[in-house]
Amino acid sequence: MGKSVRRAAMASVHLVVAAAMCFGMYLFITVLLIAAIGTVAVVGCWLLPEAVLLIRRIAGAKRNLTALWTGREIPEAYTPMTGTLRERLRISVRDPGTLRDLRWMLAHYLYGALLALALPLWPLGLVVDGVWAGALRRDPVVLPLIVRLADTEARWSTVLLMPSPEARLARRVEELRETRADAIAAHEAELRRIERDLHDGAQANLVALSMRIGLAKRAYERDPDAARKLLDDAQDQAEQALAELRQVVRGIHPPILTDRGLVGAVRALAASSGLSVVVDDGGLDAGTRAPAAVEAAAYFVVAESLTNVAKYSGTDRAEVRLARTRRGLTVRVRDEGRGGADESAGSGLLGMRRRVAALDGTFEVTSPVGGPTVIDVELPCVW
Questions:
Q1: Helices in 220-373 by DSSP H: which ranges?
Q2: What is the tens place of the pLDDT at every residue in 32-53?
Q3: Model confidence over 118-128: pLDDT tens digits?
Q4: Per-residue burial over 184-223, b = 16 or more CB atoms within 10 Å of its CB, e = otherwise
Q5: Within its chain, how far is the Cα of 370 from the centroid?
Q6: What's the whole-model pTM score?
Q7: By the 8 A CB rule, do 274 and 266 touch?
Q8: Which entry of 28, 182, 251, 289 is 20 to 30 Å from 354 by CA?
Q9: How far is Cα 50 from Cα 59, in angstroms, rounded to an integer?
């Protein structure tokens, strides 16, 4: 009985908020009329895009309310309201999302008042279910009806606010276009980094090596000791050039990933980071390996995250969790440092986001001031 009362109370709260929104939408009719009259009169045509934006916000609030009750997010698919006034007017009129939101508003004027059906059920339910469930130990029959009303309200809202397949496809195409642009930018940045590393590192060392060998050849006949010293320096220079080349290769695709797999590579990163890092492999050691591109992206996320922990967090402890899911691979890096991570501050977060987006993955950073900082990454793949 107590569980039914709590569930019915939560459903009543949902219906009360829906009814309050419905009442506010009745007041919103005045705004719509002013926008319509202003548009017809031309002098107030700028009101129409603003009214449409306001409708989008109201519909977004309803999506959030419905998602809180159902536990399922309702996606949005709107054409961005940008450009000149003429373009914004065209978008306001032609965007399928506008018609969908207006259709929902008209329907919500009717079913948004389901609270009127729920309120009489409370006294009846407390009496009937109090006897039926409390005294006779049977399942409640009246209070669950309030929950069904909330479910009905949420179901109708979901159906009316859910974008059409065409709108979702258009939104998906736009996301892929943005992802492709980010991937191209990340690829160009990576090429510039490799070129810079080769030019400033290995190439400079190889040029110096060539010069020392040439000097040693000239000095060999007249000053063997100086030639030997130059050859020793040339050997050191060759070893340094090899080290630089290995570093560049590791930046492209770390060989340790091929040799030891993602878990082994992450454990090696943790051991060499100078931090106290707890690694939870999620059983990946015993499972099938992810594709090479996915492993590389996960490796670079962990490497950059641990670097940020060492540089900025103010703590020497971190936690790395790897997990295999039905849809792909998840990575979580957490530290209890000072928090306040900012993507625009040059901490490498933007580069990680672009690398993950290139694989159609998700990248989320939670870093309130005072900590903790948590980086969650999901990389889709087929196991």
A1: 224-252, 255-272, 292-308, 349-357
A2: 777 777 766 666 677 888 888 8
A3: 888 878 777 77
A4: eebeeeeeeeeeebeeebbeebbebbeebbebbeebeeee
A5: 22
A6: 0.53
A7: no
A8: 289
A9: 14
